[in-house]
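Anyone else keep sequences and structure tokens together like this?

Example one:
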Amino acid sequence: MEKTELDQIAGILCSKATLKQDIFKNTVEQFQEMKKVAFNLVEKLKDKVKDKDNRIVIDYLEKSKYEFHITLAGDILIFNLHSNVFKFDENHSIWKTPYLGEDEKRGFTGIINVYNFLADSFRFNRINDTGYLVGRIFINSENHFITEGKRKMGFLYTEFEKLIFNPEFMEDIIENLMIHILDFDLYAPLYEQVSEVSVHQVKTTGDSIQLKTGKRMGFQFTTDVKVK
């Protein structure tokens, strides 16, 4: 029997949609494991800090199945699992590796995004404050992963064909992200950027003027993986 367009559509759905569902299911499972690693790390860190200065806030908060927070004094790391599956851009260098050359399905991944916010942004409900993407973790159906981001996130975990996402790597990644945000200080904005305040801001802020606050102005990655 001659194949029709419907047969073609059904074939694509059965292969690509099934693949994406498998990848997302796998990424969700790894994310749940990452939550356990993060919680244990936070508890260990609390023990190391509590006797030195009890004013330092260290906390873990599970927001949902797809999000958790780590508070480190004045900073919050937000780990967010994206609900979609992505494919690396066709010009990405990763396609030149034998690992993807053997099977292009390996180039489809789930993504965990990690953002850095000021803890006071949430404490005082400063909804105009900005957070910054400090890292991304790409995980495929075979549990291979790479990362993008600042400092070690940008160069330590780049061998996609060799790296398998496991609790040891999860712990290492979280620790490196912690170190990065603690070194990533809050800069005072330029005078010109805060020289005007609206009546609305003054009337709705209560005890403090809620000027837009973030650690940096114009912060962005110079090399982001494009998605399809």
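And example two:
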Amino acid sequence: MTPRRRPPTVIKLGGELLEEPARLRRLAGALAGVAELEPLVVVHGGGREVDAEMARLGIPKRAVDGLRITDGPTLDVVTGVLAGRVNTRLVAALGAAGTSAVGLTGADGGLARVRRERRYRAANGTEVDLGFVGRPIGADPPALLTDLLKTGHVPVVASLGAGTGGQVFNVNADTLAGFLAARLRARRLIIAGGTAGVLDANGRTIPMVDDRAIDALIGGGQASAGMVAKLLACRAALAGGAVAVTIVDGRKARRGMFDDAPGRAVAAGTTVTAGTRQRPRMSRTGARGERR
């Protein structure tokens, strides 16, 4: 394989995009098209499948700001569903599309060392114990990812991490994607999910948001729980050196949907910028987004 030196693209996939076989095949084809042209890292969630498995086992779900409150039984389900079922299914689909994909979690090779989020301050100001939820830490590019990228592989990362003592932690997939995009100085971060970007009160896509708009959306309570995590992840990626960040609709998967278009959404979606040049028009009912 030919070594690749360009800064990578990081694409985060919402778990709802990975459930239906035909959609998964189309999405794998779109990702394979990107991987043919540039280094690619894929991060994925799987929240709906986790929810379904928890319901089957009679484990109640609790969440705040799009972050799952994770006790021991919940962590067992999250680990099994994300690292096992969803990750393997996505890696297999990418292989069928002709891509050399490698399934990982943040615990592999120290890819995402995390610290426990013991007390989390929610957007409404209250403090919550999230349980076994971790926040990635560190500043250096993960060596395992850079090695895989140099040899032409596509790392596919399930949103889990490990603490210094070996404890596994649940990590929000948007948070992990933003962290990796920052650490890798990614050329692009694309967050693909089940909505057409950041939406206004009338359900229309807001084409661009900046720091000031993010503050307004979160501080005013206008962003939904799932969108809060996405916006914060986008901000972290930009602060860390990612060049272009977009939130896009991944439901109509097709080859070419992630074709390079720096500085604007590659599919119907919202560009997130670090500046304060433009603010979205919105009412108090605000912006919406899907969960991880």
